Amino acid sequence: MAKHSTRVGFVGGGYRLSPYLAAIRALPEDFEAVGAVVRTEATAERLTAQGVPATTSLESFLAGGPYDFVLLSVPWPQILPLAGHLLEAGHTVLSETPIAERTELVGPFLQRYGADARLQSAEQYRFQPMHAARIAVARSGRIGEPLSVTASFAHDYHAMSVVRAALGLGFEPVRVTAAAFDDRGVQPLGREGWREELEVGTSSRTVASLVWPDRGVSAIYDFTGEQYFSPIRTRRMAIRGTHGELAEDRVVSIRVPGQPVVAPLVRDATGADGDLGGLHLRSITVGDTALWRSPFGAARLADDEIAVATVLRAMAGYVEDGIPFYGIADAAEDQYLDELVHRAAAEGKTGTSTPQAWSTLPSALA
Prior knowledge:
CATH architecture of the domain at 129-267: 2-Layer Sandwich
Radius of gyration: 21 Å
Structural class: alpha/beta
CATH class of the domain at 129-267: Alpha Beta
CATH superfamily of the domain at 129-267: Dihydrodipicolinate Reductase, domain 2
Number of helices: 9
Order of helices and strands: EHEHEHEHEHEHEHEEEEEEEEEEEHHE
Distance between the termini: 37 Å
Strand content: 25-35%
Shape: globular
Strand order of the largest sheet: 18-17-16-15-14-13-7-12-11-8-19
């Protein structure tokens, strides 16, 4: 019997649904958007017109389906209460990030629903093709033992998830120092598009040092929100190891005395300069080694949409085999690191982690 496409339900109708719907439409044999429950009639009408039957009644949504899993995309205070409601109704849940309004709420949730609650978190950044390739370099031994990451590409828990994946960290003790600054500059581009005037604005920039003394590894976090859109505030990542380093899209390493090797990360994309293969990313390589290959064939997806599609596919796998790919514990740890950074910046002093409700659980990133 042919396997049916994975049936996805949605709770919430905000802007974060866009990449999920783009991925589902690009991969109709893999996924099906079955239904949604949203807050307003206007949003319900918009989604229904886009082919996703929507209602404003949670009871009607729960009675519909069937859903293989439900994607929860709601404001932070509603995340754990609605996740619990969906779990109690027998649904498997994929929750948008972060995992909770505050990580202090995760302990009571785990006590009530257990560490094996059918809940995963939709953290996609480590699945973005370039980040996946960089993490593969760090774990391949090409630069030796990875020692540190400079993360200046995403905010808060998103960055922490990539740092931990690159360094193979679980829930080890961490020491955090941080500071916040004003970053003044023109803000030419936003979520709504290019602005007509080059007006100078102020963004908040946070710089932090994180040290995991038991593992002998560290990270520098440096981010301002303008980096998501601005062409003059670029995104950057570096990983240093005992035998080399990766900086952006270049790897420098040495294995033979006197013979350092420089190798670029190369994106193999079709559809340019007369290529009739359609526009899609096929692979990222270093030398003759493929670090990442697209699992979605010729689907025309942007990098973040590829990452979201990877999360959806991982969630479909979780529904089948129950093996977590980014569960409550991992999501809570990355949000906890985020909280430690901002607390250290606000208080102006070094902070140290303490054991949390999830600290003894296994990590999918270690």
